Amino acid sequence: MGNFLPERLKKAREDAGLTQEAFAQSLGLSSEFISLLESGKRAPSLGTLSRIATHFHKDSSFFLGERESVFTVLFRAPAADLSPEARLEFERFRRYVDDYLRLEEATGRRLELAPLYSGRLSPERMAAEERRRLGLGDEPIRDIFALLERNGLRILRNSLPPTVEVSGIFIFLEAQGAAFALVNSAQTICRQAFSAAHEYCHYLKDRQDPPLISSLDTSGYGARSLDERGGSRFDKRNQFAQEFAACFLMPRAKVSEVAEKERSSSRLSYENVLLLKRYFGVSALAMVRTLGALGLLTKAQAADYARIDPAPRERELFGSTDEEYGPGSGLDSNGFIVSDRYRLMEKEVSGASWDNRA
Predict the structure, then answer these.
(1) Which residue ranges form the domains of the chain, and what is each CATH number?
(2) Taking the model in full, what pTM does it have?
């Protein structure tokens, strides 16, 4: 049995919104014993550890620091109903991760981790706290990929084939203290930005957990969290990350302020929606949902606007929209978009290049 990690027990309990007393009661233990566990003064027996893990729907190894590598877990993901092509994409992602870490070691450029959020903050409150920490105010984020990378989340954008129904992947390499996200660049640039913000939430809140795979479905984003055996389940972290991403990219007070200034009558026209969408750098659908949540669109309006294809309307109103609807900028011949930071390190290290990406 490996070393028990008391901080993981405390975070799991706080994330579940449980006091020590309530948690202890649910397991038939004393609150004093839970306090001793969380302070590192006692270690649980195997039986107690199993009950704790079962309560939080986690593998016992989560609390012991004896976890398999994240890619070992990811490579078992095809058993979790991912398409066969996903294995190849995961292998390419792994090679990028290895190369990135090699470049950081060679240049001495390591990124510091952002704070880990715990407890019961709402998605909106957490987004506001993170914006405040980053000094963003409530203005739109113009380059979210560079912003997130500077704050410890290394991002690779890769154009995935249609058979790989993945919008993003988040992994955390605990031994190296390094976080990575894969964002599917086959999406429009605005959807990529939303995916990046979604994975950033997992980085800030869920990085102690096994890898998270986010996929698109008819209602928005779905997410599968993989356990240590490669099993898959949907959980509430996905919905939290979705709401965080919306609030992080579109602060509600700022959306309301701009919307009130732009509307020409008692209702927001679809043209107003497109203007707001362009201002905040998000997709039309994301803006429609946010305006609906704020009560600035009626349910009927939001439903009607969500069915409209924005591309022809936006082209008619604003001209070319290749940045939003055309091929992604910065793609190399293999469909990758690597960060400026990666390219700079690559140039600093003689002979260091990602030559075997295909």
Answers:
(1) 6-63 (1.10.260.40), 70-249+328-348 (no CATH), 252-325 (no CATH)
(2) 0.80
